[in-house]
Write a structure and sequence with these properties.
It is a single chain. The protein is about 15% helix and about 40% strand. It has about 110 residues and is an alpha+beta fold. The protein has a domain of about 70 residues. The strands form two sheets. Strands 2-5-4-3-7 form a five-stranded antiparallel sheet, with no helix packed on it. The protein has a two-stranded antiparallel sheet with strand order 1-6. The longest helix has 14 residues. It is globular and about 70 Å long.
Length: about 110
């Protein structure tokens, strides 16, 4: 392999590493619909956004170059999704006030 081919391969690999790919899976027998927290090492282009119908909100920094990200998603039983955060569009996200009576809103604790 000559120098040009090595350089070309290096450049192609560098371009593929610029996007953060997130992979989520539901290995349970039930449908999942809600928020899932994960950690990414490449910050998304927006503080909150949407990609492929999945809403995300960037959270706090937890390491030198890692951040928490919360995903609002719907996964069927056994479904696996992969998506690139670099392809997201901005979507405003505002915190809502907590309910006055949490037990009435969320239900009573169960054991």
């Amino acid at each position: 392999m000559n120098t040009f081919n090595r350089l070309l391969a290096f450049v192609v690999l560098c371009f593929t590493c610029t996007a953060q790919i997130v992979r989520v899976a539901n290995f349970s027998g039930n449908t999942f619909d809600g928020w899932k927290r994960c950690v990414v090492d490449v910050s998304p282009p927006h503080a909150s956004g949407e990609v492929e119908g999945i809403t995300y909100v960037v959270g706090r920094q937890v390491g030198v170059d890692t951040r928490v990200i919360d995903l609002k998603l719907h996964l069927a039983s056994g479904e696996v999704k992969s998506f690139a955060l670099a392809a997201s569009t901005p979507k405003p996200f505002a915190l809502k006030p907590l309910p006055a009576n949490p037990l009435e809103f969320f239900g009573t604790p169960t054991i």
